[in-house]
Amino acid sequence: MTLWTSEEAAAATGGRVTAPWAATGVSIDTRSIRPGDLFVALQAARDGHDFVAQALAAGAAAALVSRIPDGVAPDAPLLVVPDVLHGLEDLGRAGRARMQGRVIAITGSVGKTSTKEMARAALAGQGVIHAAEASYNNHWGVPLTLARMPADTDFAVIEIGMSNPGEIAPLSRMARPHVAMITTIAAAHLEAFGAIEGIAREKGSIFQGLVAPGHAIIPEDLPVTQILRDCADAAGAFVLGFGDHGMARPLRISARDGGLSGQARITGETVSFALGTTGRHFAMNAVGVLAALGAAGADVAQAGGRLSDWRPPNGRGALEDLGGIRLIDDAFNANPTSLSAGLAMLAAQDGPRRVAILGDMLELGRDEVAMHRDMARDPAMDRIDLVHCAGPLMRHLHDALPEGRRGIWAATAAELAASAPDLIGAGDVVLVKGSKSSRISTVVDALRARAAQDKG
């Protein structure tokens, strides 16, 4: 089905069409491009113009460019604009403008991508659903998601992230959500904000893009909940809190067959749900998702029944059997709040030993040493048998642990990965967690490789 014609795209961007074309998708990467895609030649680590000829040879319908690249004929199917990123933004705005369904935007310091995928799964069967791929939540990810959105979409789930002040509000205004949900506020990217209150105000700016009368879904019981409520009030939004004391709250959560089942009260309605993984933080985000979907007009009971189809994305808390050990792969990112949630998830598992393998938590600002050291006093640590650490910051946690709980410390994740056979034993339940740049995921790779070798 055609997503964009050259005439529609030219009208949206004000660009010049060199030859008529029709696109069925939008791509920024020649490695994953599909025939019929519009290739967007963004400037990133490499200039996308260098790959236009390759994209067209791979079957791209056209390319969005700011100049005719070398090796590309002047009459090739192109849409020429002054600036490619601005052109993509214009295409995203046009994609949002022609869509008549409901838009849900999700942000938060922890759990954006897993919660977005939770919402996508819960909405299955309720019309045409469109959601961001992977963690496409930044200055190019949001417009790309909107530009890819079919005109007949009934529900769209847009993920919005930030690294620095002032990034969320413009993306929210572009997405124009009817409902905006904040998962939680934590010490992530703290060095750019100075204090967690600044993070809360930045996250709360997502409400500035709400289509009136919009709904703000906020976590209750946080030290900064009132800041989020103030941001929502300033935007004229209806506020719905979720959490143990929220209008949307869990009534019962219990473990079952490697997952969770529960009931939630969603603005007066009792909704049953099940999750195919453990972790109370996932259950709480499920309650928030159900509240957001209800505010967007979805069938909440049906959404609750679909939540069992959801699994955490790779690196974000998925529970995996590796031939004799159980792995919680949470290696995509980390801050004190998400690490505490991961440790609680590990502590709740049954097994002869519970082992944590931890990499540095980054971008925490001036208190980063204390934040690492203080994790040794996390309540879940009492039920964890052994902690291996990698990185200079995690050295402070390692040194603060009781000697009997102290495992291997290595300067880098690569060194720890090389010791993979010495980190675990048969029957262990293992959590691997750290910031992405700590490269603690190399330990996950090593554990999987060892399991595959043992199986072979």
TrEMBL record:
Annotated GO CC locations: cytoplasm
Keywords: ATP-binding, Cell cycle, Cell division, Cell shape, Cell wall biogenesis/degradation, Cytoplasm, Ligase, Nucleotide-binding, Peptidoglycan synthesis
The keyword Nucleus is annotated on this UniProt entry: no
UniProt domain Mur ligase C-terminal: residue ranges: 323-435
Predominant subcellular localization, coarse grouping: cytoplasm
Domain Mur ligase N-terminal catalytic: 24-68
Gene Ontology biological process terms in this record: cell division; cell wall organization; peptidoglycan biosynthetic process; regulation of cell shape
Localization of this protein: Cytoplasm
Pathway: Cell wall biogenesis; peptidoglycan biosynthesis
Transmembrane segments: none
Gene Ontology terms, MF aspect: ATP binding; UDP-N-acetylmuramoyl-tripeptide-D-alanyl-D-alanine ligase activity; UDP-N-acetylmuramoylalanyl-D-glutamyl-2,6-diaminopimelate-D-alanyl-D-alanine ligase activity
Broadest EC class assigned to this enzyme: ligase
Entry EC number(s): 6.3.2.10
Amino-acid positions noted as binding ATP in the UniProt annotation, renumbered to this chain: G108, S109, V110, G111, K112, T113, S114
Residue span(s) of domain Mur ligase central: 106-292
Catalyses which reaction(s): D-alanyl-D-alanine + UDP-N-acetyl-alpha-D-muramoyl-L-alanyl-gamma-D-glutamyl-meso-2,6-diaminopimelate + ATP = UDP-N-acetyl-alpha-D-muramoyl-L-alanyl-gamma-D-glutamyl-meso-2,6-diaminopimeloyl-D-alanyl-D-alanine + ADP + phosphate + H(+)
InterPro entries attached to this UniProt entry: Mur-like_cat_sf, Mur_ligase_C, Mur_ligase_C_dom_sf, Mur_ligase_cen, Mur_ligase_N, MurCDEF_CellWall_CoF430Synth, MurE/MurF_N, UDP-N-AcMur_synth
Function: Involved in cell wall formation. Catalyzes the final step in the synthesis of UDP-N-acetylmuramoyl-pentapeptide, the precursor of murein.
HAMAP family with a match to the protein in the record: MurF
Family listed: Belongs to the MurCDEF family. MurF subfamily.
Protein's name according to its UniProt entry: UDP-N-acetylmuramoyl-tripeptide--D-alanyl-D-alanine ligase
Originating species: Paracoccus aestuarii
